[in-house]
Specification:
single chain, about 160 residues, alpha/beta, Rossmann fold, 6-stranded mixed sheet, 5 helices, about 45% helix
Length: about 160
């Protein structure tokens, strides 16, 4: 029996607060990581990390990830439309705060995103995302580990 394809991790990196955590977990499992951004970032130098700098422009990093992500890969993103595109390809999508996007939850997440955008445009809602907390980081690390283990179990069946 042949070895299952290697799980890869894709990071929508421009505003991602957990890049270092992703690399640490990936290193423990020997998994390749693609850090995708619109701007140059400090090079990692880690042999498992591939830094991808895409052209400037809206959704360029998202488009690159959506084009390359495959079944059972993991995408780290807070971008709901990108998460939806990854789920459509059979990949897993995990927010930096540790909340997993699922096929069951993505429709509501897209609808809420659209509603909030309309309310902001109408001036009815002003706001920013809540601050990233230590608990968010811990939840992310737990969920990333759980997701990797779940993918590996599914691939070994």
């Amino acid at each position: 029996m042949s070895e299952p394809a290697l799980l890869q991790i894709y990071v929508d990196a421009d505003a991602c607060p957990v890049k270092d955590e992703v690399v640490r977990v990936a290193e423990r499992h020997g998994l390749p990581v693609h850090i995708v951004s619109n701007s140059g970032m400090r090079p990692s130098g880690h042999p498992l990390v591939r830094q991808v700098v895409v052209a400037q422009g809206p959704d360029a990093a998202d488009d690159w990830i959506a084009e390359h992500v495959m079944d059972d890969d993991i995408c780290i993103t807070a971008d709901i439309p990108l998460a939806s595109r990854c789920l459509e390809k059979g990949a897993r999508a995990l927010r930096p705060d540790g909340k997993l996007f699922t096929k069951e939850s993505i429709g509501m997440a897209l609808a809420m995103r659209d509603l909030m955008q309309q309310l902001r445009e109408a001036g009815d809602v002003k706001g920013t995302n809540p601050a990233f907390t230590r608990e968010d980081r811990s939840r992310f690390l737990r969920e990333l580990e759980t997701t990797i283990q779940a993918v590996r179990r599914a691939k070994s069946l």
